Amino acid sequence: MRCRKCDRQAVINMRQHKLALCEVHYPEWFILQVQRTIEKYHMFGYDDRVLVAVSGGKDSLSLWDVLLRLGYQADGLYIDLGIGRSDSGAAGYSAASREKAERFASQRSGARFIVVDLWAEYGETVPEVAKRVHRGRGRPCSVCGLIKRHVMNRVAREDNYTVLATGHNLDDEAATLLGNLLHWQIGYIARQAPVLLASGDGFARKVKPLCRLYERETAAYALLSGIDYIYDECPYAVGATSLYHKELLNRLEEESPGAKLQFYLGFLRARETGLFCEQGGAVELHPCINCGQPTSAPGLCTFCRLWKSQKESADDRP
Predict the structure, then answer these.
(1) One-character DSSP codes across 63-117
(2) Could you tell me whether strands 73-80 and 49-53 are parallel, antiparallel, or unpaired per DSSP bridges?
(3) How many Cβ atoms are within 10 Å of 160's Cβ, its own excluded?
(4) Residues 246, 126: one domain?
(5) For residue 199, is pLDDT > 80?
(6) Which residue range(s) make up the domain with 198?
(7) Nearest-angstrom CA–CA distance, 105 and 161
(8) Which residue of 1, 87, 216, 219 is most buried, as measured by CB atoms within 10 A?
(9) Domains of the chain: total
(10) Is 206 strand, coil or helix?
């Protein structure tokens, strides 16, 4: 198959776009798609300071790479969750992904790289917090999400970043949407969008510049751009419902190329018409009495309550 642009051998065939491109023109196409998404949804401009949440995986590192190539003020944030850390301190999944992110950052002059080590700052890893809170039952995914959101918002707030960017791709967004629709989680559906605007209560604007790009497309960009990323999934992702939803959507895509994109874009069009509106009005927020971050809970936010319970457990030990 030949490249649509130059007639050289194509390295990727995107059936959903009826487009095949070579190793030169594909990265150019990918970067252009990201820029178009940023502009279409008014995500940010060149005066904004963008904090990119990086995990060491293909999506977040590709996003950071593209934003730097486009000339945006983009810095990286890695949160070391301590996943895979043994009692002896041996390295695991988090250490391996951190190494990929650090290596990427070292090769990009002028880009700032911030690391928040959960164990070093708070004395516990995500698996340890989950074990304490949930008494060892199930995966720590809910605790992990809560902690990451708090840390990302804290760093953005403390360092005056106007935008927080994540590497969620089309496959992620479509799978999340499918899961929420299957259970009709109207609140979650109403809040799913390429952009979550900043509030006056201390939350940075959150954006997803890869939301219209397939996971396969991002992987191809990373490969052709020489980005070294961690291939392994988080060990706690095994058996996650979201992976099952992705599998279902992949089957649909195989039979009907472009189905995932149409599913997601159709949702966004319906959202714009007001079809999915969260009921009950805006939630009243106020500063947490400990960390100062916005919360709807009285007194302490959920994040601070996690560590308060840690201290109380330690105080109760003989």
Answers:
(1) HHHHHHHTT-EEEEEEEE--TT--TT----HHHHHHHHHHHHHHTSTT--EEEEE
(2) parallel
(3) 9
(4) yes
(5) no
(6) 37-282
(7) 18
(8) 219
(9) 2
(10) strand
Which region among 160-169, 217-226, 289-298 has the lowest average model confidence (pLDDT)? 289-298
209 plus 97 within the same structural domain:
yes
Scored b (16 or more CB within 10 A) or e, 176-209 reads: bbbbbbeeeeeebbbebbbbeeeeeebbbbbbbb
What is the distance of C-alpha 154 from the center of its chain?
16
pLDDT 10s digits, 164-190: 999 999 999 999 999 999 999 988 898
Q: Check whether 215 has a pLDDT greater than 90.
A: yes
Q: Which sign, positive or negative, has the C-alpha torsion 260, 263, 268, 271?
A: negative
The structure tokens 């895979």 sit at 84
Task: Please say if the pLDDT value at position 316 is more than 60.
Answer: no
pLDDT over threshold 80, residue 87: no
46: tokens are 């060149």
**Which one, of 27, 28, 21, lies nearest residue 7 by Cα?**
21
The percent of residues above 70 in pLDDT, for the chain, comes to 90
Identify the sign of the CA torsion 249, 252, 258, 262. negative
Question: Backbone phi, then psi, for 104, in 5-degree steps?
Answer: -60, -50
Q: Which pair of structure tokens corresponds to residue 89? A: 């301190």
254 and 304 fall within a common domain: no
C-alpha dihedral over 282, 286, 287, 288, to 10 degrees? -90
Torsion of CA 148, 206, 243, 19, to 10 degrees: -140
- Return the residue matching tokens 């950052």: 105
